[in-house]
Amino acid sequence: MLIPTPRATLHRALTDPYSYLQAVHHRNPNDLSDIDPQWPDTCIAYKLYEECSQLINLYDWMQAFISVIGQREDSANRSQSKKGKRRKKNEPDTSLHARFIRAVSELQFLGFVKPSKRKTDHVERLTWGLL
Q1: Where do the H-state alpha helices sit in the chain?
Q2: In this structure, what DSSP letter does residue 88 have?
Q3: I want to staple 72 with a disulfide (CB 3.0 to 4.6 A). Which of 37, 39, 63, 100 is the partner?
């Protein structure tokens, strides 16, 4: 008899993406608690999601996401920042903002979050552990 466990499979895929992507050179099997900036955006958003409470402030979540993504893009953006437009200090890059929105939308599609009815700038967490 086959008993599917989609939630556990999704959890494993989002917390250890390279076990499915078969990119061994990026994988550190001893430490799965750290967030690797080389992970796909949805996996980074999910790892940050796991650290949150029932209501998640989207702005705080986005800032944490950008700080993780920024680790891998600092060197690439240094050469382009001299040529590009100047942004305000607290204003996120539009491409990083779009990537965050897409990652949250994918988590919403998978059933991990939904928009909050209480606060418009929050989402509600729908899953707790692997129960």
Answers
A1: 6-15, 18-21, 41-50, 58-81, 94-110
A2: -
A3: 37
Quote the CA–CA distance of 68 and 63 in Å, as a whole number. 9
| Residue 24 DSSP code | G
> How far is it, in rounded angstroms, from Cα 6 to Cα 108?
16
Hey, what are 62's tokens? 């986005």
The strand pairing partners of 114, in sequence order, are 124
Please check whether residue 56 is in contact with residue 49, taking contact to mean a CB–CB distance below 8 angstroms. yes
What global pTM score does this model have?
Answer: 0.78
**Residues 61/46, Cβ–Cβ less than 8 Å:** no
